Amino acid sequence: MPSFPANVAIREVGLRDGLQSIPSILPTERKIEWISDAYAAGQREIEVGSFVPARLLPQLADTAELVAYAKTLPGLVVSVLVPNLKGAERAIETNADLLLVPLSASHEHSLANLRKTPDEVVAEVARIRAARDAAGSKTLIEGGIGTAFGCTIQGRVEQSEVLRCMQALLDAGADRVSIADTVGYAGPSAVRELFEKARKIAGERFWCGHFHDTRGLALANVYAALETGVARYDATLAGVGGCPHAPGASGNASSEDLAFMLADMGIETGIDIPALLALRAKVAGWLEGESLHGALWLAGLPKTFAAPAALNA
Fold first, then answer.
1. Residue span of the signal peptide, if any (predicted)?
2. Which of 151, 165, 208, 243 does the annotation list as catalytic?
């Protein structure tokens, strides 16, 4: 039997990765309610938005307000995505706990999505690290490697290129690195193989797995990653979102389905699953007409499910 982590963190990214991918613009007060309810349900890591120009992503224009609110919640790790130095400077100013810089291992996807080559993103991370250190900030820098298993534009992405980018990000000063299956090409075998190699390079600095459920394999891919010892995964409530370069694709693994699977495996997440399902119902009402995903909300918790006796503080 494989040895799984005893505790796993589910980082909620629905407020960023989910909302940026749909046309609906959720009012700030609703987002604050989402953060508050997720926190009350036991979630302790939330990516609240992204510091990008409002004209590009009006859905995320209120990120600074959301960081300010989220920072009032004790023990909540507040993260944001930033595409460049300017966004990173805003993240540092707001005292976000972590900023994530996306790098696409697919050269063609990188140019389409960020208008930079992977190596230009690495150079930007070095500038961000210098700015962070000069500011005396404690904000952590995470380099997130996307399209790590293939790309709808380029096709094949070599493992060696993913691992080269990972080492380059670490050399440039990233505190953490993560791997994302941006367009849902991964399967468990490929995940296990790549994550094992990544762990050998980055050790405990390999921070997170990010799996889209495009072809229904997100939870299977999490299981394979768990076998390698990775103990943090991105997920979106109700599987909200998608990818502009993978038309028709669902978003990440749904937070509630992932929490249920982990609980069933005896892995502690600190999450009150009925409370998370109640939040899902609320968000579904706010996003009426949008495509939502996940299975647990349809079937409900089984009668044999025993909730943890006590949640993490």
1. none
2. 243
